[in-house]
Amino acid sequence: LNKRILSGIAPSGIIHLGNYLGALRNWVALQDRPQTDCLYCVVDLHAITVAQKPENLRKSILNTAAICLAVGIDPAKSPLFLQSEVPEHSELGWILNCHVYFGELSRMTQFKDKSQKQEAATTAGLFTYPALMAADILLYGTHLVPVGEDQQQHLELTRDLARRINNLYGETFQVPDALIPEHGARIMGLDDPKQKMSKSAPSELNYIALDDSPEKIRKKFKVAVTDSGREVVFDEEKKPAVSNLLTIYSVAAGVSMGEAQRRFEGKGYGDFKKELAEAVVAYLAPIQERLRGWQSRPDDVRDVLRDGAKRARELAKPKLDEVKAKLGLGLWPAPVGGRK
Ligand code: TYM
User: Fold this and answer.
1) What is the pLDDT of residues 147-177, one digit of tens each?
2) Which residue, of 14, 37, 66, 299, has the fewest CB within 10 Å?
3) What integer pLDDT is reported at residue 121 of this predicted model?
4) Is 199 a catalytic residue?
5) Annotated catalytic, 112?
């Protein structure tokens, strides 16, 4: 039996290098792993846990889907779909909401961070969102979930929920594993190496967006924060900023961390940051080229999403029906041959 892979990304005007190195890059690689079936989702229902302007959300959805395609998601291999187009996610999300405890959700660090930052507008959706994320995953019998480190806690909760449902109602859900990359699982902000690189950062100097121009990329690395001292060495304790930049360099240049450090022996931060910028410019160039292609054909992007939703629904419906039946919901047993 093939392994099911599923992951999701929230639609945003900015998809950054952290998203790519921590997650999207692996989404693409997994498509070619033998005996895997991948499904990828733009999670627009998650986006509305915070206030959104409809016209911006519409643009972000299309932008995010175009980026998924530009980085190499091949819709012929892996359905790419919009969460809100597969209503089974919401339905299972509700059911899981009724099985997750208030205390569990209260411990989610992402919720604590986000709710602290925007006190006035903490919606119930922001609080219960990990249950919807669990639904995204469990609906498809997912084995592996390629994500960055910041999603690990949500994955743990998803596993707990799967086991809880299995204990209560009999074997229903596959218990999924997170797939977190060895390098790039937690890319830090260029302006503050203590915070992760984030789409919602107040300054655009925090991140490299995948569609930043070469000039912008060069400028952002030029002003990126470094540490005291002058050696380009990997030491997360003593040199968090330089270590983050070295991680980006080693992935973008396609070399090991050891080789990356050797290349900058005896060189200062200035030279290092210049070469880093060029490596990232070259790394992103083919993605940006394909992105311009998809951006000029928004109807094609919509077609991909429409087709993806159709295929996802076919997979989601039987699982949701099974869950509802096990819980005693609906008018079961269904009449043989359907109702006349
Ligand atoms: P989102 O949209 O915030 O991020 C998408 C993916 O990018 C990873 N990521 C990072 N990786 C390394 N360094 C960073 N600085 C960094 N920032 C983000 C995230 O870990 C993620 O893998 N809740 C999820 C979306 C989601 C989902 C799902 C994921 C919804 N349903 C089901 C997997 C399965 C989120 O907000 O990701």
Assistant:
1) 999 999 999 999 999 999 999 999 999 999 9
2) 299
3) 81
4) yes
5) no
> What are 221-244's pLDDT values in tens digits?
999 999 999 999 999 999 999 999
Determine which one of 59, 114, 324, 326 is catalytic: 114
pTM of the model: 0.96
Residues with CB under 6 A from ligand 1: 6-10, 18-19, 21-23, 43, 46, 133, 136-137, 145, 147-148, 150-151, 185-187, 196-197
Which pLDDT score, from 0 to 100, does residue 115 have? 85
Out of 196, 220, 239, 319, which one is annotated catalytic?
196
19 CB-near residues (< 8 Å, 6+ apart): 9, 148, 199, 210
Question: Which has the closest alpha carbon to 298: 306, 286, 288?
Answer: 306
216 is catalytic: no
Note the pLDDT of residue 340: 60
For the chain, which residues score pLDDT lower than 50?
A: none
Quote the CA–CA distance of 262 and 53 in Å, as a whole number.
Answer: 48
- Which of 151, 154, 183, 197 to mutate to test ligand 1, by most ligand atoms within 8 A of the CB atom? 151
Asked whether 236 and 243 are in contact (CB, 8 A), the reply is yes
Mutate to test the pocket of ligand 1, among 6, 14, 17, 19 (most ligand atoms within 8 A of CB): 19
